[in-house]
Amino acid sequence: MNYSKDDFKLLISEKLRRNFGTNPAEADRQQMFKACAMVIRDIMSEHGVTTRSEIEKKQAREVHYLSLEFLMGRSLEKNAFNLGVLSPLKAAIEDMGFKAADLFEAEPDAGLGNGGLGRLAACYLDSMTTLEIPATGYSICYELGIFSQKIIDGKQVELADTWKEMGDAWLMSHPSDAETVRFGGKVSTHWEYGRCIVEETGFTSVLAVPCDMKIAGYKTDFVNNLRLWEAKSAVPVDMNYYSTGEYLRAVESQAMAEVISKVLYPADNHPEGKSLRLKQQYFFVSATIQSLFRKHMQQYGTLHNFHEKHVIQINDTHPTLVIPEMMRLMMDEHGMSWEDAWYITSHTVAYTNHTVLAEALERWPQNLVASLLPRIWMILCEINDRYLDELRVFFHGDEHKLQEMAVIWGGEVRMANLCVATCFAVNGVSALHSDILRKDVFHSAWLRTPEKFRNVTNGVDHRRWLTEANPELHQLISDCIGDDYLIHPEKLSELEAFANDAAVLKRMGKIKWDNKVKFAAYVQKEYGIEVNVDAIFDVQVKRLHEYKRQLLNVLNILHLYLQIKANPKAAFTPQVFFFGAKAAPGYAVAKRIIELINSVSYHINNDPDCKGKLQVFFLENYRVSLAEKLMPAAEISEQISTAGKEASGTGNMKFMMNGALTIGTMDGANVEMYEKLGDDNIFIFGLRAHEVEKLKQQGYNSYLYYNGSPILREVLDLISHGFADGKSYPDITNRLLYGQGCPADEYLLLADFESYRHTHSVLVDAYKDQKAWNRMALINVARSGIFAADRSITDYAETIWHVDHR
Fold first, then answer.
1. Distance between CA atoms of 533 and 633, rounded to whole angstroms?
2. pLDDT in tens, 385-442
């Protein structure tokens, strides 16, 4: 059905009357937003009914994408765009007395994720739907999303993110589809007629209530689902406690249950936090697989063909407990043998690894697992025993191999090893990352089962991050090559035919300028800061972690500052540095680096010698909607992680699509970007991954770099001695030079500093030739199609999932 402006006015007015008891003339912005969202949701729901019916009729294989994070961002404009109704919706909103841009801006980000992992999952849902792959995402319906970041006295302060106050307009609750999840208790077993009978007693039950968010594909009526599980108490309120005035005890069971879906990533540096995280992980996978089994049995009457009709992709290790939970349900509730249950499980579940960092490869204390999930613990022990038996045969009893590959060892349950032992496919997310998994992280497992290991390089939703975020650039692309790239991102390559077209290059420069002006106006409005739009916009936005090396960027900025101070009248290409990052609440060093960035910002921005030359800004509360404004304005993209540490990155791809030039290491997907762009269109520096390992093996001494470089020594001494805000950071310099509970300069900032400083200088010099710069920017856009999520999902569909697609 085609919707007109008048259709939307009528539908929105009806929602306002029926759901809010008001009319367009009296409705406030929140009511108007929710009414619009409900109208769009209704359209998607109608399409969803048809989609579901077609899937069941075809008995098509379905994909189930399990992720503890889905960083969805804003949905109203995105969904309307995908449905092809954005123009009439905007016109209706304007006709009803509201500004469409203000209404879209009022929507809170659905912050159900922390960073790249959750944003990737959101991009993939969009692509799966656009490619008409039957798919459902599964996660937790967090009451509070990733925290809202406030900078107070230069420090990060975490505030509650109450996204559901408006975001609940997208959610459709289905209490009748609730599942029961059990924690704790005791397990006993006995044999009857050759079958092991399992009895669980003394457990605590929690209800998992599904809340569905519809996902619209682009230029298709196909609709998929994101199912978010909300925790509720399975025990009614005990009114006897109310009668005796014990009000807290009356609601205790409700509070203990609902805390499971209260907040994303509770701090786990204490036993209670660890327990809650484990509960969250089991809660959502148990509810998911129970729901899947129930629906499959209704359609097919047996679970023996489950692996033929379903594939479960687990996004990092957080959903790994789906493996023993599948085993539990098939054996304990459906009477299957271990062998049949294992065959189905190991032919259903595939694993995407997202990290090579040892601390991020989850390990749970076995005592916690045994007490919280006693039946799951029994199954894990059996998986481990059988796996070790197989390994003893293959590796001829090599105990070192057993220790390395065991699922349970040293009092810990190793989730990544469980995935590798079980899953039919294990993939990395960039060519370099997948190579590291094969040669290092899971090398022994690769030797035994090389056929399991694949690569699927990450991709991003180019319709969101290019077309919607950068409409002027979209118009230029469409004028040059048409808009087929929206469905076929590989067609962006046709833009390169215009790489020497003076008019097109001039227009590229004008688009970037316009986007810089728009972003500067936003910063002025939101932060009260005046940005020099004549300066290069140099951007590093990503989760704050030491390996991502925001600190290396700071070292170079301070070098530039000291250059200006040494000769204030010398020629200097103006530069503005933008940082955006959230640090995990319990990550003290990362939070300290944020404080340092803010001290540097204050110091430089208030120095008269730097006026018109150098500015530094830390953008508070970095999030998807802020990224959508910033990336089209960025001219330099900082992708400077230690080689071999970043699995892929996706911000690098978004910047590339928007014509920013990358300065980066040969890490993650930067390697594939370099292969596409060559030396002329990307600025690579620093040690390669093998050189990093070699330097560490030889015995890295960061102090030698400090002593050997007057520039570096001056910069580090400035950090130690302090800034205009009265703060000094000797702890950070000591960490780089001597280490504090970790190796000195663990991520080799000082080793890479000189190469980074020099390459950055070359990059800034290149900016002086705007025609050549615009040509490089256009080539970056033209060669970015391979980094679209549509390509990634096509790879998954054809090489891992074996499902049909559009």
1. 10
2. 999 999 999 999 999 999 999 999 999 999 999 999 999 999 999 999 999 999 999 9
Q: Which of 288, 320, 650, 733 is catalytic?
A: 650
The CA-based diameter of the chain, rounded to the nearest angstrom, is 92
Q: What is the pTM of this model?
A: 0.96
Which of 474, 507, 543, 623 is an active site residue? 543
**Which letter does DSSP use for residue 252 in this model?**
H
Q: Which residue of the set 542, 591, 613, 735 is catalytic?
A: 542
DSSP 693-716: HHHHHH---HHHHHHH-HHHHHHH
Handedness of CA 517, 518, 519, 522 (dihedral sign): positive
Among 47, 516, 654, 676, the one annotated catalytic: 654
Is pLDDT of 240 > 80? no
Say which residues have a Cβ less than 8 Å from residue 557's Cβ, sequence separation at least 6. Answer: 577, 600, 604, 614, 616
467 residue type, one letter: T
164 is catalytic: no
Nearest to residue 94, comparing CAs of 167, 15, 19, 5? Answer: 5
What pLDDT score was predicted for residue 257? Answer: 86
Catalytically annotated residue among 78, 279, 354, 507: 354
CB atoms within 10 A of CB 88: 18
Sheet (strand 408-409) strand order: 363-365, 412-414, 408-409
Q: Give catalytic status of residue 654 as yes or no.
A: yes
Q: Check if 548 is active-site.
A: yes
Three-state SS string over 641-663 comes to CCCCCCCCCCHHHHHHHCCCEEE
- Helix/strand/coil for 210: strand
Report pLDDT digits (tens) over 720-771.
999 999 999 999 999 999 997 889 999 999 999 999 999 999 999 999 999 9
What single-letter DSSP state applies at residue 515?
Answer: H
543 counts as catalytic: yes
Taking 80 as the threshold, does the pLDDT of residue 242 lie above it?
no
- CA separation for the pair 736, 713 (Å, rounded): 12
Contact by Cβ (8 Å): 428, 664? no
